[in-house]
Amino acid sequence: MCIRDRRILAARGYEAQGLFWLSAWQRRYRAEAPLICRTPERWRLLIELHWTLVELPYYIDAIPIADIWATAMPAPGLPGAYVPDPATLLLHSCAHVAFHHSTDARLLWLLDVDRLARRAALDWDMVLTRAAAWGLTTVLAGRLASAQAQLDTPIPPAVTQRLQKAPRQPWEQRMIGLGDEKPGRVWRRAWVSWQAFGGRQRVRYAAWLGLRSLLWLPETVVRRRQQRAAARFAPVRPSYG
């Protein structure tokens, strides 16, 4: 997590949660840090400060953040702020649905995919090139097919043909659903991620998992104490009616 960004938010009453103090370890194997506001006017408001596109350990290295910043565009009406280009936004939306809502049938998640696929400014060649480079071809193909079937999303035939012929990594399909909220997801994510890594990265990831396990219990105890204290001193909000 960027120390400067955390300090800016801390000055506005936001307190970082979790193992943010592990610095490089946290940035390498975690995708975001939650910050909770302690000021009365924004009590318990949550901000998740992300520093990578996809919240799975393998993709933190597989998707260079420099590539995202290189094509980011100024955000309309927000001086100094930038948003990813349409191709990156589409890949992120597909990845979010595939990794975190693979068994969720709600159309809400596919609607983002549909709207982004319909944008006139979308560069389909960039979408396919980045999907192949980042290991998201299976994810992209699956979510586009779902959007087309349920929302009649217009996918150029040439794009469909290229996706059908594109090579896939053997572990891509196994990544789908690793972020779903269901029992055993922590161990399943750790095992599949470890298999996707190679060489020294496997050793480093195993070391992180060991360190994370040792720190899990005291972190949980501290978090529960914070929650009890927050509930005790939470401001009383007026009720109407």
How would you describe this structure to a colleague?
It is a single chain. By secondary structure, the chain is mainly alpha-helical. Helix content is 57%, strand content 7%. The chain has helices spanning 3-10, 24-29, 57-62, 65-70, 86-100, 107-117, 124-134, 137-151, 157-165, 172-175, 185-196, 200-233, and strands at 14-16, 32-37, 46-50, 73-74, 82-83. Strands 1-2-3 form a three-stranded antiparallel beta sheet, with helices on one face. A two-stranded antiparallel sheet has the order 4-5. A hairpin with an 8-residue loop joins strand 2 and strand 3. Helix 5 packs antiparallel against helix 6. The longest helix is centred in the C-terminal third of the chain and has 34 residues, at 200-233. It is globular.
Keywords, please?
mainly alpha, 241 residues, single chain
